[in-house]
Amino acid sequence: MSLANGREYLAIPGPSVMPDRVLRAMHRAAPNIYEGAIVEETAGIARDLKAVAKTDGNVAFYIANGHGAWEAAISNTHSRGDLCLVLATGRFALGWSMHAERLGVELDILDFGKASDVDLGRVAERLAADTEHRIKSVLVVQVDTATSVKNDIAGIRRVLDEAGHPALFMVDCIASLACDRFEMDAWGVDLMVAASQKGLMTPPGLSFVFFNDKADAAREKAGLVTGYWDWRPRAFPQEFYQYFGGTAPTHHLFGLREALNMIAEEGLENVFARHEVLARAVWEAFDVWAEDGPLRMNIDDPSKRSVAVTSLSIGAPYGNELRQWVAANAGLTLGLGIGMVDRSNPSSHGFFRIAHMGHVNSHMVLGALGGIEAGLCALQVPHGAGALEAAAQVCAGG
Q: Where do runs of H (alpha helix) occur along 166-267?
């Protein structure tokens, strides 16, 4: 007998939980793609996406996952032989840089490991050494989904400005948009990539490149841009089909429209505050469990943790065993630990992640924590007592 029957909770860092409102909005017949509501609403979707990103700049839509946005961002701004400074804090900045390298871009990688954020001093030193301004772009993720570290985006912009360096500042917000606070224009970001399946609460398959005039000026000299990935017709369409380089992803748009409505109704500041409180509840529980057992959060400093996802170590084989137990017995799906060690290493079975992003509330988070505690008990993993009460106190005071 299993207690997993009932509604499952997908607590992985994307795709995130999809609201019933979004699913209902998508559950309709195919629309006319030449005139009518879908044509009229797309400009409003672009406007509201820019409001979430806090930018007055431009946005281009791509029918692709985040990897497509990575490639679009590079191809519209770079030529073969350009040098890109990569600030790596886990798997995903390195993943983006691999796309750039395959396109012929040269890489200069500053790797800050898997448990810390970008060291601004090291970035300042590297920029100061680039007296000829060979570096054409600085590439970083706001939140690395594998490590759950959150980088100081405004601080990196400040370092660029103090160095007087003209490089494009390019940020991946795929894991963080509409979860962790992000202010594209105020923080001086030239280009940002995002996707539909995390804080935007829509199925995977849409991604976005936000860019300012400085990034668009780089497009003039970009030797890698191709007809399909060109952001100009997508951001400045003369006809509706140009938004998407062809047939519109109609039902994704229906879902995204409803998700943006939900964000607007809640208020973006309230969205940020909700994520902060729920993340603190999760962290409080893990801190208590860690008092007497092997469980540890990957990022020690709470100010450097993402409020969208938490990465943890618990020691092999408990990471995999815990994930399997809660899936089979509690209807809870936790995320794999990725990028911490090589998958062939037996210790890779000692990591897992929990998402608290998008369409989540206190009873969902507290329920997930209850499922984890049941799993710790069932597997006889040592852990401190009182974690659920501590998390509940955070929610009660949130």
A: 213-219, 231-235, 250-266
Strand order of the β-sheet with 106-111 is: 58-62, 207-211, 191-195, 168-172, 135-141, 83-88, 106-111
52 assigned to some structural domain: yes
Residue 54, in any domain of the structure: yes
Q: How far apart are CA 339 and CA 361, in angstroms?
A: 28
Instruction: Indicate the number of domains in the chain.
Output: 2
Overall pTM surpassing 0.85 (yes/no)? yes
Question: How many whole angstroms separate alpha carbon 380 and alpha carbon 317?
Answer: 12
Residues present in the chain in total: 398
Place of tokens 């509604």: 7
Give the phi and the psi of residue 251 in degrees, each rounded to 5.
-75, -25
Q: 345 by DSSP, 3-state: which?
A: coil
Kindly report, residue by residue over 158-186, the tens digit of the pLDDT.
999 999 999 999 999 999 999 999 999 99
Residue 81 inside a domain? The answer is yes
**The domain containing residue 314 runs over which residues?**
9-16+267-397
- Same-domain status, 109 and 90: yes
Q: Answer yes or no: are the C-beta atoms of 96 and 70 closer than 8 Å.
A: yes
Both tokens assigned to 354: 């929990």
Do residue 260 and residue 145 come from a single domain? yes
